[in-house]
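ESCALATION

Customer reports they have been waiting on this structure for their group meeting. Please prioritize. Original submission:
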Amino acid sequence: MRIADLVEKSDRQVAKPINFGLIYGMRADGLQNYASVNYGVQMSLADAKRFHFKFFHSYKGLATWHEQVRKELYEQNKRETRTLANRRRRWLPSTQPSLNEMLNLPVQGTSADITKLALAKLTVELDDTAAAIIAVVHDEIILECPEPKASQVASILKKVMIQAGEKFLKLIPVEVEVGIVDNWAEK
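Update from on-call: job pushed to the front of the queue and completed.
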């Protein structure tokens, strides 16, 4: 049994604001509000502070990266950031980017780079499957195919997404969840 199999839906609901908020520089008071407003998760300020501490204690590399970006932004007046594919975002000298903006592009932009690479590879890999790319939602690729081909297409999608992720995330294991459903609402 995988650890992920032991995680309840309610655990995932609490983890979402922690992961999505803290990775972009949110502090404990912001986390408390963000969890409530965006996810319906109520947490005390003490809990938010505890989650903040444990998150950055567990992910020391993120804490180091946040501090580096903070220094570049506020001490060196840096006005650009890049994805792992080296795409960059630049701000005008008259514009002060926020810490959130400086932290967001490397994460979200790299995710977009991975998804775009996977889409490019999929067009070739799916050639003989009668599958079609229906939509892309953030880091999800939604395909449609004849039912007898569903397992094959799911396997191709998983393989391609892992390969695309590994191109950029060389030291991080890439995990991909693939589901076969009759409609997107069932995912």
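Sent to customer with the following note: Residues 1-58 form one domain.
Escalation resolved.
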